[in-house]
Amino acid sequence: MIDALRYEYVRLRTLRSTYWLIGIAMTFQLIMSIVLAAVISQSDSFDRGNAAFDVIATIGASSGFAPLFIAYIIGLLGVFSTGHEYRHGMIRATLTAIPNRTHVFAAKVISTVVISAAAALLCIVIALLSIVAFGLDFPTAKGLVNMTSGTMIFTALFSLSGLAFSALTRNQTAAVALLMLVPSVVEQIIRAIVIAIKTASDDPSSDGGIMNILKYLPYDAGGKLYTRASLDDLLSFLGFIPFGAVGGGIVMGVFVGALLAGSYALFMRRDA
User: Fold this and answer.
1) 46 three-class SS
2) Among 98, 234, 253, 259, which residue is least crowded by beta carbons within 10 Å?
3) What DSSP line would sit under 24-54, residue for residue?
């Protein structure tokens, strides 16, 4: 297992895409954190403390009306962890050097989780430095812990889903498309269809029913880990009550776990 982790470490260290993706994500986070902190420091109407920190740390994603940018960028590292291997035929060299496929797969999962969580943590640090630089109030300890853990967990799960898509399809382009389109397009289409059906029903304001489907959209549910308000709140008049942070995290965790289980099973059976 140690050899597999060392192999993965060397692979990541020698790929330019690793540095490019982390560099883009951190540069965007730094610039937007400074801009948002500057705007909030000049505003008399915006809540300080936890609310300001949440917006700066997630670059507005805590509102629920924008995606968590860091997850989409770092998630590509999850795709590339397996996609590069198949695209360039390096999977044969990898399995020659490390014949134990379980160790190879586990090393990719571990390295993806570590890099994703570390990148999300660095975004939190950048947000805190911006708060200090512009003299804003610090978040409470509970607010800091909740947002930090939620952002790190969501980013890690998002990246792992990218790894799983890549391992399932063995096609890097298809995996990138799935990672980008499932959360932002497919889930939104399902949401629109469910809302249309519920609105056209005899009792659109009744609790539950078909609206419960929306609670199990994995990326939307996982977003509750870092959102403090969202579009879902506007759907309460249709009887929709979404999961909280823990429930949403469990839904996304189960979904990603199922993807990883399927990709692991195929990885063990398929020819390299």
Assistant:
1) coil
2) 234
3) HHHHHHHHHHHHHHHHHHH-SSS--THHHHH
